[in-house]
Amino acid sequence: MAGWADGYVVDIAYPRFFIRETMPSWLTTVAMLLGQQWPDLSKPFRYANLGCGSGLTDIVVAATWPNAEVWGFDFNPTHIANARRLAERAGLRNVTFVETSFADVARRPQAELPEFEFVVAHGILSWISESNRECIFELIRQRLRTGGLAYLGYNVAAGWSSLQPVRELMQLIGLADKKRSDLAIGGILEAIDGLREAGARYFDLHPTVQERLTYLRQADPRYLAHELLTEDWHPLTFADVARDMSEAKCSFVGSATLTDNIDVVSVPPKVVPLLEAAKDLRLKETLRDIGCAQSFRRDIFCRGPVELSAAEQSGYAESLAIVSIGAPIKEGVTFKTPLGEVVGPAEVYDPLLKLLEQGALSVREAQGVGNPPGRPLVETVQAFIMLVAGGYAAPLPMGGTISASRSACRRLNVAIVEANANGGDIAWLASPVTAAAIPSDWTETQIVRALLSPQTADAENISREVLHTLNRVGRTVQHEGQTVTDPDEALRIVTEAVKETLETRAPILARLGVIDG
Questions:
Q1: Which fold has domain 20-158+234-265+295-302?
Q2: Phi, psi (5° rounding) for residue 321?
Q3: What are the extents of the domains in the chain?
Q4: How confident is the model at residue 373 (pLDDT cuts 50, 70, 90)?
Q5: What is the pLDDT of residues 92-141, one digit of tens each?
Q6: In sequence order, what are the residues at sequence separation of 6 or more whose Cβ sits closer than 8 angstroms to the Cβ of residue 195?
């Protein structure tokens, strides 16, 4: 891997991912919760994504915020071609995708590019060379508007350092294999297993490596190729990133990972006093990363931060509203945190979930609900934060959405479901209500395809159409981990899934603006 690729994986496209933490509505909500002023989303704004991949996140921004001017930059022509194709099919004219390197963008004359209220770079810093990282910091210095927010998502040394020698070995095995990167992943993991089973002492000295490899095996091989097989792979420290962002005149606001801003759920109890005693920001965040063996940070920085007064923050916090996105709840509400899985107290979350069944819920409306009534504002806000962090709810944009986003989101969702009907695998649908995208799956997108059609259809007809499409694109019906080969049994299983979706998911999708109510 040399030349224009600059050591990066380019023989297979990065899979389409939507990153909720990079959405303008998410970033501004986090800024409010942390007591910082934010860009006004009711006015026209500009958004830039450095290393946009196939552009799904940027396309969702463009659809949910028609008043935004969205730019996506990526050096891989396949990524840019895929991004442009989906944007064109959705009829979005407020998003521009540019095939370029970070160095080329950084060298552009000031007049060629605007300033941006938002600049995001997710999953980029740790997988590029030092010179390219310098270009990103320079771009932020040049292009982030005063008062704007920058987001940086990167691997952290505290959680990844033990895997680094194994990662380098994996890359060498992949280079020797000479297969396409994603096709080489299976053999690479088998080779590492063979090394461990042969008694390589490294695995005894670093037991967390095996845990990490077990987790990675569950991921998409295309993602693993980009994650593990690049020439540059550099887990970073917060102190280094904060230093470089300081040179770009940007101050740390907090984490876009909501639970990382709550000490009691992000680090062991005895580490909390150490964080509280730390007067230096870089020291505090480094203690946090080591305290929870942090593997990935989602940092938000501001150029020219302005603190809210206590009264302003309380007022905004009371108006914070969330809406259910229909995540299943089996045995209570659970949250994944750096400390492991946490179970939410039923007396706190059950009343809130009951109210969310009726629609959107604000902190002000929730105050006094539950046992005991009249709980402190901070406790209700924290409960809202945990519901959002846990994937049970999504925040509503402060100040409301733009009405034109409904038609734009509908066009995007039609483009998504049609792409999936032709072999795609986009696992999100745009919601004009949350100004973001919600998780979905292939089958649900095809049910939504039928519901977005001008012609109404009953469950049986939808099921037959879904099964026909599934067979046409080479997918199979799965039941309890097994492939179903009998046509009648396959139709029965698909019909049950369609009926379940129409009964339980369709009302939620309608409430989120994905389909008509």
A1: Rossmann fold (3.40.50)
A2: -130, 145
A3: 20-158+234-265+295-302, 173-228, 310-395, 405-511
A4: low
A5: 999 999 999 999 999 988 888 999 999 999 999 999 999 999 999 999 99
A6: 169, 203
